[in-house]
Amino acid sequence: AGRCRRARGEFDRVALYIGRLAPHKNIPRLISAFAASSFGGRAGRLILIGGSANERARLKRSTVMPYGVTIQALGPVSEDELDDLLARSMLLVMPSLEEGFGLPPFEAAASGMPVVVSRTGAMGEIPPANATFCDPLSVDSIARAIDAAAALEGAAPRLRHHGDLGLALGRAIGRVDRKSPRLNPKHLVNS
Prior knowledge:
Elements: H1 2-8, E1 12-18, H2 27-36, H3 38-41, E2 45-49, H4 53-62, E3 70-75, H5 79-88, E4 89-94, H6 103-111, E5 115-117, E6 132-133, H7 139-154, H8 162-174
Parallel strand pairs: 1-2, 1-4, 2-3, 4-5, 5-6
Helix pairs in contact: 1-5, 2-7
């Protein structure tokens, strides 16, 4: 996805979320924050990737979808579809309340994609040069972080410290049980 991002240069006004739609992933606050953000109010779209059919149904039943904001819950997608979405989207957002590992933000940051994350689990190890951090309990904080990350895409590229990102990934892996399915790439979209 990183190679495609660098070659393309133009991005769709999409904030992408990758993962399960479980309660600890904080999706209702993400939706509220997206609706409150300038990015969401100016024709931005939020695309949710992953989650089981039951999780999508529970989200639909329990969450008030804001009027005038485009939010799509696509469910699991193929690797090719995921690569295409990562290449075209402006930013990745994962404001989890708790997280075991959270590999999608590391991959997105390594490709140069702006990421919005909470400091939970391993995501707190992402260097500040590669992420915009938010308070996952604050809709306002998440909304401000979305707007800040979206603004980065139009500006000159930030200096990426890939060495720092690699060290952070190594520290994060050391904090997670190596036998966890969250480290298996086959499980990334549903972790």
